[in-house]
Amino acid sequence: MGWTGPKVVDGKPTEGTFRSHQVPMGDMSRPGHVKILEQWLKSYRPQELFDKTGRLRSELAEVAPQGTRRMGANPHANGGVLLRDLRLPDFRDYAAKLPKPGSVNAEATRAEGELIRGVVKLNPETFRVFSPDETASNRWGAVFVRWGDVLVFAHRDMLRILAARRLSLPALEARKFYLTTASLSILGYDHDFDEPVIRLWNDARR
User: Fold this and answer.
1) 30 and 10 together in one domain
2) Domains in the chain: how many in total?
3) Please, what's the largest Cα pairwise distance for the chain?
4) Which of 53, 111, 160, 198 sees the fewest Cβ atoms within 10 Å?
5) 139 with 154, same domain?
């Protein structure tokens, strides 16, 4: 669903929690689920957004950017305008070594993360990985290994949001992360880069 959703489904808080980023009403045969879905969709007040034929109202359509202001047409986002050939590593270097069937535990997406790290290494100025909140869950943690530690200075509210999103929490949950001025925090990983963790938080020692 994304960030929003029904406030409560089956007695569990949904809106503003990790559940809204999943499928909290996957089983539509359960009593009340269809009604909950209907109420949530109607909360967007579609009657104010579309006319009787189902078309987006013209006054709202005019708000959308035009020409190269559109996301897909912006030259900074459109690879067809600024396209450059990438230097690619040999994909065979990332194959799982299998001495015999069933002898090795391996994951395709983890190997994919290693491959993407190789692409970043060969193309540091022309290739970017854009994955706001799914990098670790998609087993792409390897893309972070090459760069080592990164030092970030920012307004405390931005750092609190960064910490919340790193833990796959909604940005609103950042308000629960107390942070003082000029403090030190360290975000890291556990379990072989599978699990984002907070290694240190709000250390204000001088």
Assistant:
1) yes
2) 3
3) 65
4) 53
5) no
User: When comparing pLDDT for 114 and 139, which is higher?
Assistant: 114
The answer to whether residue 73 sits within a structural domain is no
Which amino acid is it at 21?
Answer: H
In this prediction, residue 121 carries a pLDDT of 87
Using CA atoms in the order 154, 158, 161, 167, what is the torsion angle rounded to 10 degrees?
Answer: -20
Does residue 82 lie within any of the structural domains? no
Domain that holds residue 161: 149-206
DSSP state of 198: E
Whether pTM exceeds 0.85 = no
Is residue 9 situated within a structural domain?
A: yes
Q: Is the pLDDT of residue 122 over 70?
A: yes
Dist. CA 15–CA 6, nearest whole Å: 6
And the tokens for 176? 């629960």
